[in-house]
Amino acid sequence: MDRLPKIGIPIVIGIIILLIIIFKSTVTIGAGKAGVLYETLGDGVVIDAPPLNEGFHFIAPWNKVIIYEVRRQELKETMNVLSSNGLDIRLEASVWYRPTYNELGLLHQQIGDDYLNRILLPTIRSAARSVVGRYTPEQLYSSKRDAIQAEIFEETKKIIEGQHIELDEVLVRDVTLPPTIKEAIERKLRQEQESLEYEFRLVSAQKEAERQRIQAQGKADANKILSASLNDQILRDKGIEATLEMAKSPNSKVIVIGSGDGGLPVILGNN
Prior knowledge:
Shape: elongated
Largest sheet: 3 strands, antiparallel
Oligomer: single chain
CATH architecture of the largest domain: 2-Layer Sandwich
Strand content: 15-25%
């Protein structure tokens, strides 16, 4: 009886150690994540095998797993940049990115899990300053935002190429100019719009005047041609045709042939 406690203690200790080993030998990777295996007694970061995907995994208790988010992520950044004429511009942008899945081992080995602050954030700031510096405040405020957005994306993508990061999109959410500059640009845009409207009305009036002139000229030319084509014989023929038509009418009338001007008939009614 005295020996049972002495035998039970090692068993309990053994069970505890076994549970610790089992616990240390498993890892669960959540949805949208992947794991990089680090072999403590081997070559360190495993780069020649795919990352550990979602789910439950057994690993050697002396190894470690570094878990990365592999879904698309958003970086929101607000920065101050200078325009082409040296004015301070406030730019708000969103960057959509993700680590390259099959290169997670290389990413962890060469850069580390803080790749956002080490690589992506400095790159997007540098690209934004470079691109915005090519444009005037007026271009930034109005017509060139899409072009700026595309250029920042291309420059950032070029810089991070080979850094095991995928860049999906760069969106310029807002461009804030100094208040005095913004007011001056808006005033200029209003004046340009008013000028365009005035020019449109002027051109429309000129076109209408030209249309009326052409129409009047056409009528004058037609009358001139008609007048030149008429003579006494044609007029008499037309008068005779009209008389014949009137004679067919059932209304009571008396027609005296050859008593009118130019030899045309004279029509006498009952009244």
